[in-house]
Design goal:
Elements lengths: L11 E7 L5 H12 L4 E3 L8 E8 L6 H5 L3 E9 L1 E3 L8 E4 L6 H7 L5 E5 L8 E2 L2 E2 H6 L9 E15 L2 E8 L5 H12 L3 E11 L2 E2 L6 H7 L3 H4 L14 E4 L1 H8 L4 E5 L7 E6 L2 E9 L2 E7 L3
């Protein structure tokens, strides 16, 4: 019989403004400790040197993580022109250099090719699995391997600043699975000058904005206190992109037992994924069919 995890049954979302120099998993572990929570997870990894929105789910909110992972995300990042690195960021070793520097007009003209539905090859220093092994492990061992291109939706990619000839700052909004480092690498290759990410900040992720972020210093200072609990957003925020269906108490009871439950109102169409609520609290997520929700995830808060 498995041992139960110790901690509080606390549910909700905490938006962390992640600093550079710490991994996403380390942030999650610190948040779990600070709330004394039984369960925690995050919706979308940030590289250790990246900063900005890291949405951390506690308790029952972890069941809504896929909906944030799948949501659009926005990044502001600075590309160092004239250098390629083996990691496609400033932490790696320089592998190629060029004295060529594109004009602003050259850069703007290149961006549409990296916008829309594109195919992107992830960096070799990434968590992509190759024959069961992480790509970054193979790269560290100097193994020779290739990573297949993957589809990525880039809603927008815009030049926002050119502080000097060697650097350009871009804003990007993209879907699930995108690597900003690969965008910098590919842009540099297209411009004939090489490039890598110098700085990267996620400014929003789905419904979560960096302006609402809590710092690691605040988490440390307020750990295990009601003041920190006050920063939690309800788990229902993670379901914002799905239609909400209201249900009766009887319908909620059926849903919590894993059975289809009647819903009262709906903006959903037959077969749509939606969530049912009772008194504003999420009861279940599932498929809407003929006045009922057929649950796939049930919330026990």
């Amino acid at each position: 019989m498995g041992r139960s995890r110790k901690g509080r049954d606390i549910s909700g979302w905490l938006v962390v403004d992640k600093p550079a120099g710490i991994s996403s998993n380390a942030v999650v572990n610190k948040v779990r400790w600070a709330f004394n929570a039984k369960k925690a997870g995050h919706a979308g990894t940030l590289d250790p040197e990246a900063t900005g929105v890291l949405a951390v789910a506690l308790g029952e909110a972890t069941k809504t993580v896929p909906y944030i992972t799948d949501a659009l995300k926005a990044y502001r990042f600075t590309v160092r022109l004239g250098q390629a690195t083996n990691t496609d960021d400033a932490e790696g070793e320089v592998t190629d250099q060029s004295d060529a520097r594109p004009t602003d007009a050259d850069i703007i003209a290149a961006l549409p090719a990296l916008t829309g539905d594109i195919m992107q090859v992830p960096p070799k220093f990434s968590a992509v699995k190759i024959d069961g092994e992480r790509a970054y492990k193979l790269a560290r061992d100097d193994e020779d391997f290739e990573i297949a291109a993957r589809p990525l939706y880039v809603e927008s990619l815009e030049l926002v600043d050119r502080p000097d000839a060697d650097h350009v700052t871009l804003d990007m909004v993209c879907g699930k699975g995108g690597y900003v480092r690969a965008i910098a690498r590919d842009l540099g290759a297209m411009l004939g000058c090489f490039g890598h990410v110098r700085e990267l900040r996620r400014i929003w992720s789905g419904p979560f904005d960096v302006e609402d972020g809590v710092t690691m210093d605040q988490i440390e200072a307020l750990a295990k206190s009601p003041e920190l609990d006050a920063f939690l957003q309800p788990l229902e925020v993670g379901l914002a992109d799905l239609p909400e269906l209201r249900c009766t108490a009887d319908g909620a009871a059926r849903l919590r037992n894993g059975n289809p439950g009647m819903v009262l109102t709906s903006d959903a169409e037959y077969g749509d994924e939606a969530w049912a609520s009772l008194d504003g609290k999420a009861v279940a997520v599932g498929r809407y069919k003929a006045g009922e929700l057929h649950p796939s995830r049930v919330f026990l808060h």
